[in-house]
Amino acid sequence: MFPVEQFIAQFSGKTIALSVYDLESGREINVNADASFHPASTVKVHVMMEIFHQAEQGKISLEERIPIYNSFASVADGSPFSLSVEDDSEKSLYERIGETETVRELTRLMIVRSGNLATNILLDKIGADNVNAFIESLNIRNVAVRRGMYDLAALRSGINNSASARGLTQTMRLLAEGIVISKQASAKMIRIMSEQEFNESIPALLPKSVKVAHKTGWSDEFYHDTGIVYPENRKPYAISIMTSGFPEDNENEAHDCMADLSRLVYEELVSTAR
Question: N or C, which terminus of the chain has less Cβ within 10 Å?
């Protein structure tokens, strides 16, 4: 049993999934990698990908200014719903209702601060069906974006987003290889993810010299992190950790688990290879 498998096995009553692809060696590490989870905010990466896709096609401009608003129609029945500032880690847009912001800045806030309001505004702009179509065109498996953030009517109707650790790692691998739209577009998206403001998980216990571009996601008992790790003097590796079952009132336990698991992966791929 590999160290990562031993580590995961000790968490009784929790579901922990890990998927790693090393661009240096081609090695993969997969534990529960095809288990389907509520993905929380990790799928905001796929929303960003479709934004850059439509910009490349000339359908939208990243510099276009669009209204900031907080009223959305449920994909389940069209009923209106709004987001609460208390449920959003990005607060600034709620003070700016009625103003405008660029698609580029809304995209940045969606990723680096995991803004829910920014996400829903952007999804209205580009369409969830288009996000899914682009996911499918890239042959990314077991990832689906069916609704916006806090569309509770859709959730009650069984319409939910979903992802597996393997699907998220496949996404990160494609970005790292520079084949999502173009090398230039992939690099721009990676640069945005490298500005992530929530760094308690994948990057937390890695050497300071290691750069990480990643996207977190958490909701109720679900805590996830997916990204690209750039050790010094070698190619990067893609890694996704998805968890459920950790208590909501002690999120540090989930973050610590993911940080330790990330460290073990780094040691397995990088430290032991030296």
Answer: C
